[in-house]
Amino acid sequence: MFRFLFCLHLIFISLTSFALDIEFYGPCEEKALVSEKIKKFPEGQSIGQLTISYLNLREIPYKGSEMGFNSIFGSPIGLDAIELVSDTEMYSYGWCYWQNGKLLELYPNQVLANTNDRLQWIFSYAQYKDGKWISQCIPAFRRKPKFLCESL
User: Fold this and answer.
1) What is the per-residue pLDDT for 18?
2) Which element (helix H / strand E) includes 126?
3) pLDDT, tens digit, for every residue of 53-104?
4) Does residue 121 contact residue 23 with C-beta atoms inside 8 Å?
């Protein structure tokens, strides 16, 4: 009986699909720019390492490192990534990541990627108002900022 259950377990494991989902969301649409299942990747890689390997493999332009990304897909950086609303309010845009639906407060080089993870990189904003940062990593597609989403 034990052999039968053990063999059944091995068959179940071999039929089970293990894959990591990686997705990238831009500033203007809630639909992913890129969404792919990665079926094989070296164990023990951080989210930062895995993302760099993926971007290089798919020849997606980026600026950054395992610790984080300033630009992916040619997104604006520096002053070009700031939207001034008034003398006391602005939005600053950049890339944030979620692992399995959770925003993590750690650099991506500090978190290991696991099989069956859902990894989302989302172009997001932080809001500064009246001398304080009042939000961070809010998906930009919720605002659809005109300077990024409307054609000239």
Assistant:
1) 67
2) strand 118-129
3) 999 999 999 999 999 999 999 999 999 999 999 999 999 999 999 999 999 9
4) yes
Distance CA 91, CA 84 (A): 7
The count of other CB atoms within 10 Å of the CB of residue 1 is 5
Supply the pTM of this predicted model. 0.85
Please give the DSSP secondary-structure letter assigned to residue 56.
H
Distance separating alpha carbons of residues 64 and 92, to the nearest angstrom: 17
Integer-rounded Cα radius of gyration of the chain:
19
Q: Which two tokens stand for residue 112?
A: 């290991």
C-alpha–C-alpha distance, residues 135 and 152, integer Å: 29
Q: Which long-range contacts (CB under 8 A, 24 or more apart) does 137-144 make?
A: 137/96, 137/103, 139/25, 139/30, 140/26, 140/27, 140/28, 140/93, 141/25, 141/26, 141/27, 141/28, 141/29, 141/30, 143/91, 144/27, 144/28
Q: In 3D, which of 33, 37, 13, 15 has the Cα closest to residue 24?
A: 33
What share of the chain in percent tops pLDDT 90? 80
